[in-house]
Design a protein that fits this description.
Strand order of the largest sheet: 2-1-3-6-5-4
CATH topology of the largest domain: Rossmann fold
Structural class: alpha/beta
Number of strands: 6
Order of helices and strands: EHEHEHEEEHHHHH
Number of domains: 2
Number of helices: 8
CATH class of the largest domain: Alpha Beta
Shape: globular
Low-confidence stretches: 227-231
Length: about 230
């Protein structure tokens, strides 16, 4: 399937697609934004590398006007697991790609940044990058969720995290602890078995959390002038 809409948010995989589609719906951005992993938009593989691979094609579409707005959300992951990962390496890789198309990282980024913004030297729309969890630390989407859980949900999550920590012989790798913790916490909700999107649909995330607000502000910056008014 090709790009269907002129406002595109690229994510790593199907789980991310479902989560961010529901999040954009909650923020009244949906259905104006197409949230898509690489394979949905003619990429060969859903992954962080798959996002890197398809980004040049999308930047060309942004340059020639076939796309109006473009942003990417990827995990920082862990440099100890893959030497090409980690926040700094992820930022460097995306910067290397977008620089070839006339984009440069905005010089007055907040610290910690409220999402990363790249500006074009010829006045094209800003390109947005969010590196999970918070544009500075190693980790992934699940670490973002851990930060944004409602206070009244915290005892459930803490219990889930303790259960994971007490496993005598975990089958998953240590750097996937956050995935296991979030999956266990979601399994204890009213409708067990749902994916990350349930944290949005079941109102489990604190909308007043600073990091949650920063993600919303970043998305609004990228897409605001191309979409109807929303909260």
């Amino acid at each position: 399937m090709a790009v269907e809409k002129q406002l595109l948010l690229v994510v790593e995989g199907e789980t991310d697609e479902m989560f961010f589609t529901d999040l954009c719906r909650q923020w009244q951005l949906h259905p104006h934004i197409q949230v898509a992993p690489p394979k949905v938009i003619e990429g060969k593989k859903n992954s962080k590398q798959g996002v890197y691979n398809i980004l040049p094609m999308l930047l060309e579409q942004l340059n020639d006007g076939n796309l109006k707005r473009l942003a990417v959300i990827v995990d920082a992951d862990y440099q100890s697991v893959n030497s090409a990962d980690g926040f700094n390496n992820t930022l460097s890789k995306v910067t290397e790609i977008v620089t070839l198309y006339g984009f440069a990282l905005k010089s007055d980024q907040q610290s910690p940044p409220c999402g990363l913004i790249f500006q074009h030297d010829d006045g094209l729309s800003d390109f947005g990058l969010w590196i999970m969890p918070n544009n500075q630390d190693e980790g992934m989407l699940e670490d973002f969720l851990k930060t944004c859980i409602y206070r009244h949900e915290q005892p459930y999550f803490n219990h889930a995290a303790q259960a994971i920590a007490k496993l005598p012989d975990p089958k998953f790798k240590t750097h996937h602890n956050s995935k296991a913790e979030i999956a266990t916490w979601l399994a204890w909700q009213k409708k067990p078995g749902h994916g990350l999107y349930a944290s949005v649909n079941d109102d489990l995330l604190d909308k007043d959390n600073a990091l949650f607000q920063q993600l919303g502000a970043w998305l609004r910056h990228i897409y605001s002038s191309a979409t109807p008014t929303y909260e």
